[in-house]
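sry for the spam today, last one i promise. struct tokens for design, 214 residues
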């Protein structure tokens, strides 16, 4: 595990949060750093992400997820599909404590990690599921279903469309958001917006793809 320099990471994180104009308090910044520390620690054993260096993690994972936060304004119940190490779900839950965030993954070691993060950080707004998203049933559907580098857009909507509330939307975090994926969407779904994201310190293409029922 690369050395965890909390002060250096806090500096990068605070600068990025300021650039993104997000209103996060010291407690939230502290929890994001705690999450980063747990991700870095567990990653050495559980292989949660290919990024090993916490200094890269803070930009490529945490700030990358934080850049999407404004898109979730007004959302009350969110599902992160294929949550993996908790991106963007865990970051959303910390940045928006008023929002209920559920995370689902099929891999037990990943959901074990997410459950540990929830407990250590005291995140009452987080729910973890270990199963395929096609098998998930909930009493109350979600306003927003999100994923980050999870699957082809058509698979994403086909597998989890039954969980989306009437009038809800999918928000997929993508790199280049290839047009062929958008063209393959089933007829009942349409892309309503393709929004470029600028992630502080990251020189790479990032987009949010918004999808609703046609």
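last one done:
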């Amino acid at each position: 595990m690369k050395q965890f320099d909390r002060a250096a990471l806090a500096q990068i994180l605070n600068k990025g949060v300021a650039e993104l104009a997000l209103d996060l308090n010291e407690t939230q910044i502290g929890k994001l750093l705690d999450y980063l520390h747990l991700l870095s620690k567990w990653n050495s054993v559980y292989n949660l992400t290919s990024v090993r260096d916490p200094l890269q993690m803070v930009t490529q994972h945490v700030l990358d997820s934080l850049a999407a936060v404004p898109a979730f304004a007004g959302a009350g119940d969110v599902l992160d599909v294929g949550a993996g190490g908790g991106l963007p779900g865990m970051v959303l839950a910390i940045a928006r404590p008023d929002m209920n965030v559920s995370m689902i993954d099929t891999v037990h070691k990943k959901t074990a990690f997410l459950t540990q993060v929830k407990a250590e950080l005291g995140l009452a707004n987080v729910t973890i599921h270990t199963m395929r998203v096609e098998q998930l049933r909930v009493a109350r559907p979600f306003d927003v279903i999100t994923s980050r580098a999870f699957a082809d857009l058509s698979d994403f909507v086909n597998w989890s469309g039954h969980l989306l509330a009437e009038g809800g939307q999918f928000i997929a975090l993508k790199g280049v958001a290839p047009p062929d994926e958008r063209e393959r969407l089933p007829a009942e779904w349409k892309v309503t917006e393709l929004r470029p994201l600028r992630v502080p310190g990251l020189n790479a293409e990032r987009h949010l793809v918004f999808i609703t029922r046609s």
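Residues 92 and 129 are 17 Å apart (CA to CA). ok im logging off now
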